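Quick start: read one record
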Amino acid sequence: QDYPDDFQYEGGPPIPPYDNAGYTLAFQMGVEFDRILNDIDGPFEEIEGFAEPMEGEILNQENSKGFLLDHAINDAATVTNRLLAANQKVYWLDQAFEANDKTWDRGTIYIPSTRRSSEIIEKAAGELGINFAGVKEVPATGKIRINDIRIGLWDRYGGSMQSGWTRFILEQFEFPFEKVFPKRLDRGNLSKDFDVLVFVSGAIPSGESRRYSWNSYDESDIPAEYLDWLGSVTKEKTIPQLLEFLRDGGTIIAIGSSTSLAYHAELPVSNHITDSEGKQLGRESYFIPSSVLQVKLDNTLPVGWGMNDRIDIFFHNSPVFRLKPDADKNGITPVAWFDSDRPLRSGWAWGQDRLYGGTAMAKAEVGKGNLYLFGPEILFRAQSHGTYRLFFNSLYLATSVKE
């Protein structure tokens, strides 16, 4: 969409869109397409209802030592989770290599051949339309072993739309997880139950506020089985437990406004969208409602494997970071950033040039653990399929082991 500029009066401030300004699903889903404006004809067949995926192929299956699977396919996560649930081994290969007259990118998934893994692969090829390639020899590259993950997804009494959509995605791709509420977080000892915690927009209070504003409830009105669901994430009780979880080796994935955890952790980052005095820019200078923008991605990092080096993101006045000069020495690695002053792909972006040089996504080492900061809404309403892989990769990396 190309949303027009509209102003309150000649020479005055802009009138921002009421709601989403850009929603081009092909961009959000990572679909490459050619736009055809003239009439076309051909031997087409009308499809009623949902189309079934075309059945996938398993090449060179006979006498194979293992199978290769393209990391770029979202449903590769479904296959991985089915294999892990069946106690089968799964690896990521950490270098590009040649096999079957083809160059395979780093991050390619390798599945050793067993009777059970072959059964799972055959079912996935038919059900999900995924292609596999058998190999006679184990690829001579480094390997990263993918292991079971104990995932905790933040939620709250009364519900969170963002958490609900994330739960839907985890269920659809067959990730095992459990919901975790503020009272459980406040009790600490989180490493006992979780390897990775996921906080979507609305979970973590900002660096300035003491708690995230949410409805309070009279406990006498709440059924006993839901009392443990009450409460809010607070700076005083919850944040120290999250930081301890990180220092002990846990992984936290923070999305949207919950990336404010970076400030609680006192990481060497600051808000990129500020004026010369460090104050947040007002709407008359900068405002980007829900729109599709493009960023540069470091797809050599494991969190970016299976993706192109330029990706479209769903941006909703999302956090953008400025890394301080000592950030790299303090374990901060930029994952995606704005390398253009015109990143708008669909929608409306007033003052978009202010984004130039800002970091949209980063990985931070905190003690023995890792904090993934995803400013854009990489899972927005379970429709941003093109950026799911960032989420899936960061989940798997929480317990992966290099062999």
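The chain has a mean pLDDT of 92.
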